[in-house]
Amino acid sequence: MGHYSKDCPKPKLGNGGSKVIALIANLAQGECNRLIFLKGKVSKQKVLCLLDIRAFHNFITQKSAERMEVQLEELKAPIEVHFADGVPHPTTLQARDVPLQLGNWRGKVDLLVFTLGGMECILGMEFITHNNVLIERHNRLVRIPSKNGIVRVKAHEVPNVGDALPTP
Q1: Which ranges in 23-145 belong to alpha helices (H)?
Q2: Which single residue of 16, 75, 78, 143 has CA 20 to 30 Å from 136?
Q3: What is the per-residue pLDDT across 7-23, written as a single tens digit (0 to 9) for each?
């Protein structure tokens, strides 16, 4: 189900092997409807997060990290992030134990810092598996277990083709 990147309106991420693969290419409109965007807060600042099962790690842009006054630290070794152009872009910064709120769910996440092609925050498999997240794509709903029971978070509307990504 491939397509040419010039025909794509939305960014996506993926992963492969020991490298993080960030395919900053857009998706065809039909594929956009399969994406799960969640309104939330990172360090008490509003953010729109993409829940992406193809991304292994969690990500935040450096600009967003600075705006949210997130404490950054150097990684012990750089992690190569590969964009659609095939050029490796090493990231050397991370934010650890960052407060995250999605609906009534609250927890902490580790975030790698780099440019995400328009997305402020991407929550990958690291977040999904660590928190036993259940994604009901057909209902556009995410369920996250918490100490008080299951928290249901409704997906945000998919941004329109050509529009800027919405602010939460």
Answers
A1: 29-32, 62-67, 125-130
A2: 16
A3: 444 433 333 333 444 43
Q: Please give the torsion angle defined by the CA atoms of residues 122, 51, 125 and 139, in that order, rounded to the nearest 10 degrees.
A: 180
| Structural domain span for residue 40 | 5-154
Rg (CA), the chain: 15
Domain count, the chain: 1
For the domain that residue 127 is a member of, what is the CATH number?
2.40.70.10
Number of CB atoms found within 10 A of residue 35's CB: 19
The predicted model scores a pTM of: 0.76
Q: Residue 7 carries which DSSP code?
A: G
pLDDT tens digits, residue range 87-126? 777 889 999 999 999 999 999 999 999 776 667 898 999 9
CB atoms within 10 A of CB 45: 15
Place of tokens 């992406």: 52
Residue 165 lies in a domain: no
Residue 70 lies in a domain: yes
